[in-house]
Specification:
The complex is a heterodimer.
Chain A lengths: L8 H6 L5 H27 L11 E8 L2 E8 L5 H15 E2 L2 E2 L6 H19 L4
Antiparallel strand pairs in A: 1-2, 3-4
Helix pairs in contact in A: 2-4
Chain B lengths: L2 H10 L4 E4 L10 E6 L9 H7 L4 E8 L2 H15 L6 E3 L2 E13 L13 E10 L1
Parallel strand pairs in B: 1-2
Antiparallel strand pairs in B: 2-3, 3-6, 4-5, 5-6
The chains are: A alpha+beta, B alpha+beta.
Chain lengths: 130, 129
């Protein structure tokens, strides 16, 4: 699943100029945003009668580099047959199968709800360099 | 006419078999199935979804006997619903691409009379008046 983050691209470019404190603060903002999106996605999944049991498998990983901070949020896709099956189940809940039938959950909704809050928070942290 | 029937009619102009939400046990490949949406998740409440005919989110699944076939159907659907990458209007609603699953093989299904699996791609569209 992809989310259009094109509006944040310029921010990503400028992040390399931020100081250590600003980077630490930005990391906290990304962490909080990712946590909120994860919780929203879990809530979406939990509301499904068919796929609710998969809600706890949704989590996020953060990648913090000197010039960029990234969070990847979604159902677990670790190695091992059982974990792959969980990720596959979430894929069916969202996209369906060749017979259709997706749409049980909306993983983009929590992201869209979080986006304005995240942008506001990041503006407050990095206002000077944006 | 509801939004959903307008969408089905439009998809039928491509010449493929088009199913509304429900695919029969032995479908004719290639085919397109339109389904939706957030307010009335079809897999759990199929009837209300159809009755309203309006949703804030619809999915279009393109299935074929081979990945190449699914890719061709999907490209034609995408060009029809997002010509040149722009949103289109169907029955007074603005339809805009929201998410996409690339072509993959559905190993949970078999093509009748063969030992092969169908391939499919999915587009999810937002629908707004």
């Amino acid at each position: 699943m992809g989310a259009d983050a094109s509006e944040l691209e310029s921010f990503a470019v400028d992040l390399g100029r931020a100081g250590d404190k600003a980077l630490k603060d930005a990391e906290k903002v990304v962490f909080k945003g990712a946590m909120n999106v994860r919780n929203g996605m879990r809530k979406e999944m939990a509301s499904s009668k068919s796929f609710g049991a998969l809600a706890p498998t949704i989590n996020f990983d953060m990648d913090v580099q000197p010039n960029g901070i990234e969070a990847e949020i979604g159902p677990a896709k670790r190695s091992g047959t059982a974990s792959r099956g969980l990720g596959f189940g979430a894929n069916i809940a969202y996209f369906g199968t060749s017979r259709g039938g997706g749409g049980t959950v909306d993983f983009l909704k929590p992201f869209e709800e979080e986006k304005p809050r995240f942008e506001q928070a990041i503006r407050e942290v990095l206002g000077d360099i944006l | 006419m509801t939004f959903f029937s307008d969408l089905i009619d439009l998809l039928r102009t491509l010449g493929y078999q088009v199913y509304d939400t429900d695919v029969p046990e032995t479908p004719n490949l290639p085919y397109i199935v339109a389904w939706g949406g957030t307010a009335n998740p079809h897999s759990e409440q199929p009837v209300s979804s159809r009755a309203d005919g309006v949703s804030d989110r619809v999915g279009v699944t393109c299935a074929a006997g081979t990945p190449e076939g699914a890719r061709i159907v999907h490209q034609r659907v995408r060009q029809l619903l997002q010509p040149g990458g722009f949103p289109t209007e169907i029955g007074g609603f603005l339809v805009k691409i929201r998410d996409h699953q690339a072509v993959q093989v559905d190993r949970g299904e078999m093509i009748t009379g063969t030992n092969r699996h169908p391939a499919y791609a999915v587009d999810i569209y937002s629908v707004q008046r």
